[in-house]
Specification:
Elements (H helix, E strand, L loop, with lengths): L1 E9 L2 E11 L2 E6 L9 E9 L1 E6 L17 H13 L3 H17 L2 E8 L15 H13 L2 E8 L4 E2 L8 E2 L13 H14 L6 E7 L7 H14 L3 E5 L3 H11 L3 H7 L7 E5 L5 H10 L2 E4 L1 H6 L7 H6 L4 E3 L9 H16 L7 H8 L1 H6 L16 E4 L23 E6 L2 E5 L2 E2 L4 H19 L1
Parallel strand pairs: 1-4, 5-6, 6-7, 7-10, 10-11, 11-12, 12-13, 13-14
Antiparallel strand pairs: 1-2, 2-3, 4-15, 8-9, 15-16, 16-17, 17-18
Length: about 450
């Protein structure tokens, strides 16, 4: 199939009149400076490579617009999140995740990284199929039309016990029991089985995740990191989202959460840490020296009053940056990427910390690399045929310089999404799903069950 793009974001920057030929889901030719012909599928506006949501908790989508009634903090918000997690079944999770991923597809997302820790039954018991919840997410992504990197998360403890013996961890709370595998070796066995079961698939990857230094002890982090290194798989970890996490880590371990990960062998070029809001100079230096990426989630960090990640310092030291939707307070990866520059402006009092090209890179190639899709996120020969056409004629972007579109456009301006050569979104609508109806239905089911459980 051949697409003609009014403008396209190529590895060298924006180009006009670009013909992109595809075959078997790959780009086979790219020719700028052309005019459309009758056989071309015309894509007006600016065509970006597929966007990558590098950090998702799909079930959090049920919380959007339902946590603002009583203020509170990240820690009180967590209690409502646990209530939603507690009612999920494999069937309900698949239904909700399908709608959630389809909403991401409408926003131009072609790959999502699911930071997955809802592994077992609510009481901590095992399903007959130990991968029932992971399978639900895989089917959801397939139906929604996005590639999936399942970041299988090891989650073993309920927090650091700063008042107990040095190095002590609290047991999982009842609301966390379904997240745990018992010990790191049991996690390793389960994820190895999952990786083998999904081997050879072209639309899914299995990676690993350390939930946080609050949920894993250093020797357990080392087991997860070793598994990821052995399989050359992506490794992700929540890091320094809240000051309380930093304080607890220093009290128990004598170093920051970044220092804990570093000592456990968890930093490196295939590692992505998420949030990184409260990093000091030593933390940034460790991340830069190891080649570790940082996934910033601006809409979530604003929503939960986490703070502003030091985007300026990370960028200045060469730390790779990508973005994620996290709790799905918004399904807008262009807004997340733009948020990198906005956070940097608020921290530094100056504009242009990140150029438009760096914003595009964070939303596309950098996010795909963080998820193990090194052959995506670029419009070039041999890459996956992922194309996202963003309008130039909507009220939001009318009159915009196409080269600066990434700093003003949003999900509502996405018109066409092609993933691996297949059109998933056409004229701003998902080709297979009524996304709004699917979201309303699945979220209503979730909250009916939450109410019944009270």
């Amino acid at each position: 199939m051949t697409f003609w793009c009014e403008h396209a974001w190529l590895p060298g920057g924006l180009a006009a009149g670009v013909r992109v030929e595809t075959s078997a889901g790959r780009v086979t030719a790219v020719e700028p400076g052309t005019a459309p012909v009758a056989a071309d599928t015309v894509l007006p506006g600016v065509v970006l490579p597929g966007l990558a949501d590098a950090h998702s908790h799909a079930f959090h989508r049920a919380l959007r617009g339902r946590t603002h009634d009583d203020g509170g903090s990240f820690w009180t918000w967590r209690e409502r999140m646990y209530a939603v997690a507690d009612v999920l079944t494999p069937a309900l999770y698949e239904e909700l995740a399908t709608a959630t991923y389809a909403e991401l597809a409408l926003a131009g997302v072609t790959a999502v990284g699911e930071f997955h820790y809802v592994h077992h039954a609510p009481d901590g018991g095992r399903y007959d199929d130990p991968h029932a919840m992971a399978g639900a997410l895989r089917r959801a992504a397939s139906r929604a039309g996005v590639r999936l990197t399942l970041l299988d998360t090891c989650y073993l403890h309920g927090g650091l016990d700063v008042d107990g013996a040095a190095g002590a961890y609290r047991p999982l709370a009842p609301s966390q029991r379904r997240f745990g595998d018992g010990d790191a070796d049991a996690w390793r066995t389960r994820v190895e089985e999952l990786r083998s079961a999904w081997a050879g698939a072209d639309d899914v990857r299995v990676g690993a995740a350390v939930h946080s230094v609050r949920a894993l002890a250093p020797d357990e982090i080392a087991v997860v990191a070793a598994w990821a290194q052995e399989h050359e798989a992506p490794l992700h970890a929540h890091l320094s989202e809240q000051p309380g996490e930093n304080q607890a880590a220093r009290s128990v371990h004598g170093t920051s959460p970044t220092g804990v990960l570093d000592a456990a062998g968890a930093l490196g070029p295939r590692t992505t840490v998420v949030h990184g809001v409260h990093l000091d100079a030593d933390d940034v230096a460790r991340l830069a020296a190891s080649g570790t990426a940082v996934c910033v989630c601006p809409t979530t960090e604003r929503d939960l009053a986490d703070g502003l990640a030091p985007v300026d310092r990370l960028a200045a030291t060469g730390v790779p940056l990508c973005v994620g939707s996290d709790q799905h307070v918004a399904a807008d990866l262009l807004a997340e990427a733009r948020g990198l520059e906005e956070q940097a402006r608020l921290r530094t009092g100056r504009r242009g910390v990140l150029a438009p090209a760096a914003v595009v890179e964070a939303a596309t190639a950098a996010g795909h690399r963080a998820l193990g899709w090194d052959d995506a996120g670029r419009i070039e020969v041999g890459a996956r045929a992922d194309l996202v056409a963003v309008a130039l004629d909507t009220p939001a972007v009318a009159g915009t310089d196409p080269a600066q579109l990434a700093l003003v456009a949003g999900a509502g301006d996405v018109r066409t999404v092609v993933r691996d050569g297949r059109t998933v979104v056409r004229d701003g609508r998902h080709v297979d799903l009524d996304v709004a109806a699917a979201l309303r239905t699945s979220i209503a089911r979730v909250w009916d069950l939450v109410e019944e459980a009270r």
